[in-house]
Design brief:
Shape: globular
Strand order of the largest sheet: 6-3-7-8-14-13-12-10
Distance between the termini: 51 Å
Structural class: alpha/beta
Number of helices: 11
Helix content: 25-40%
Largest sheet: 8 strands, mixed
Order of helices and strands: HEEEEHEHEHEHEHEEHEHEEEHHHEE
Strand content: 15-25%
Radius of gyration: 20 Å
Number of strands: 16
Length: 321
């Protein structure tokens, strides 16, 4: 066998090194999947030629924290989700209004992703999930693996920004262990967490569904009628996290009349949560099999639409057929 030429060695080294994600177990080129969801009736009436969307504020939250985004399709088979999850470094489930009972929709995709992610983590393959608002609710929904019980409680928590009411032990949680004293103080004393939901998940809901012991409850809040609900939690056994509130709105949503805080403190806590999840994704070393496959999978292949003109809460959305 002839010796490899220096040029070939250089090219081979470049090709391999360009897809080695982790150095000292840290991935400095993370790619996070964001799950699409079906359009609600109001959106469908204005963008009827599309089947799914992702609000651009979630994409910006991830990109602003030093990661790239790959859109994750709904309505695909299990092999699709297994394959894409072997190549990305975590998944974000965004907020919205998708129903949990739609066949082959947001909740079905989330259920499949959850089961695959559990198996990955059980085998030592660290794969985080981050749910925001509806995604937070989805996390508790799919954790009830036997029934997927619709256990949410109707509540009045729309268009209000609140400080967090931390529970005992939150400081030792993964989500808040590395938060500075200043960040924790802002969260506990300032109205910087945006709530935009008509359903809540309560501690009694989790107990009734027999999944209370699956989570560490990190904070609670009270709605406009003083009903208590869970506002942040994390899985006891897996790197799965949920926020009932919306950090991305502090940074990127500007619709007037919805109580979105844009103060310097509100921006700081939004950046904290984005940075936290990306730091979790940096612990995963998955990579695409080729540069071309990676490039073709990224959100850059799609153009955001300015949806604020159509009276949507989102300034921009990515739409998918």
């Amino acid at each position: 066998m002839s010796a490899m030429t220096p040029t070939f060695i250089i090219l081979l080294t470049f090709t391999i090194s360009s897809f080695v994600r982790c150095v000292d177990d840290v991935n400095n080129r993370p790619i996070i999947g964001i799950l699409m969801q079906e359009l609600n009736p109001y959106m469908s009436s204005r963008y009827s030629h599309y089947n799914a969307y992702i609000a651009a504020s979630y994409v910006k939250l991830i990109e602003g924290s030093g990661a790239r985004v790959a859109p994750i399709w709904i309505g695909r088979n299990q092999s699709y989700y297994r394959n894409i999850m072997k190549q990305i470094n975590g998944i974000l489930w965004p907020g919205g209004s998708a129903p949990f009972k739609n066949s082959k929709g947001y909740a079905d995709a989330g259920d499949t992703i959850y089961k695959i992610a559990k198996k990955m983590n059980d085998k030592g393959d660290y794969f985080p999930i981050f749910g925001i608002c509806l995604g937070f609710e989805l996390l508790t929904y799919v954790t009830d693996v036997s029934n997927r019980t619709k256990h949410r409680t109707p509540c009045s928590a729309d268009d209000i920004a609140l400080p967090l009411e931390f529970t005992n032990g939150y400081k030792s949680s993964k989500m808040f262990a590395d938060a500075s004293a200043d960040i924790k103080n802002i969260l506990a004393t300032k109205s910087v967490t945006v709530n935009s939901h008509h359903f809540c998940v309560t501690q009694n809901d989790l107990k009734r569904s027999n999944i209370f012991n699956e989570f560490r409850i990190l904070s609670v809040n009270h709605d406009k009628e003083e009903n208590e609900f869970i506002s942040s939690l994390e899985s006891v056994n897996y790197p799965f996290y949920g926020l009932q509130f919306h950090p991305e709105k502090n940074l990127y949503e500007w619709k007037i009349g919805h109580g979105y805080p844009h103060s310097a403190n509100a921006v700081r806590i939004a950046q904290y949560f984005g940075n936290f999840f990306v730091s979790e994704a940096r612990k995963n070393c998955h990579t695409f099999s080729s540069e071309q496959e990676e490039i073709s999978s990224l959100i850059y292949n799609y153009k955001p639409t300015y949806t604020g003109l159509n009276d949507l809460r989102f300034v921009q959305c990515y739409f998918f057929k």
